[in-house]
Amino acid sequence: MRVDLFDFNLPAERIAKRPAAPRDSARLLHVTFAARADLAVRDLPRLLRRGDIMVFNDTRVFPARLLGRRGEMAVEVLLHKQLAPDAWEGFARPAKRLKPGQLLEFPGGLTAEVMGRNDALTVVKFNLAGPALMAKLTEVGHIPLPPYIQRADDAQDRSDYQTVYAAREGAIAAPTAGLHFTPELLAALDAVGVLRTTVTLHVGAGTFLPVSVEDTADHVMHAEWGEVSAATAAAINAARTAGGRIVAVGTTSLRLLESAARDDGTVLPYAGDTSIFITPGTPIKTADLLMTNFHLPKSTLFMLVAAFAGLDVMRSAYNHAIASGYRFYSYGDASLLERNPSR
User: pTM, whole model, 2 decimals?
Assistant: First the structure.
């Protein structure tokens, strides 16, 4: 499909710089095939039913943005994917001026040797490995806020840009639909009989990359590592068999479920990379509802929600959200989408 079909005018002031406080006070646009309603995230318990199962992504963001030097030249490395206990590939700037064998120096005595290139990614090998490396990254790295927020990260982002249920470290970006949940909201969902389970998808730096081609068929998604445990797959399948709906919390959860599913929607255990790209026409086999934030024009994420709920439905919903003052992107408001009945 033509990428320009997913374009719309988004005023810059609609991109949120900070999250709502408390988290569950954010606005929620409930979108069905026939109607929409302006609500709040804390209204979720009355929108879901006993026996529905919510699928959360429990990945944990780490400070993956490194600022350092090669000699007198400033360098930046946004880590993307771990290759070995001491080696990562990432997006480096200025990548073209970095050559194999050069040493990059970062604060706290952390260094990395440039090993080479992997397409658009630079491979680096650190002087630390495993838990020691992750501890040092936590100490000297920066939270990799999306570039659209247009400000430097600070101490507040270390908690704001993390879900309350984050457990497995490895993400470059937060599964942002999950940022709206509080312990109180989770308890309220439990109280009405909504089930919960988790998957893990370590969101990579590729989530920030713009679509630079004219046709979606020519766009290449970067691979991200994910896991659906046997227990999670069994819980999801049991809930569906009992008549419950599958509620994917975030596009990351949906992408992983779709990667792990058979054609009949049965979810299988899964562990490995996925580069699934969901656009209108891609069959949606698993989730009945999708909770997600508001996404940018011509982004792969807006293409995904258009595939889930219908392009015309989502264009209308986004026009309403912009006119009504909803806040967009990672720190913005949320939507709850029902799958288009034709899907």
Answer: 0.93
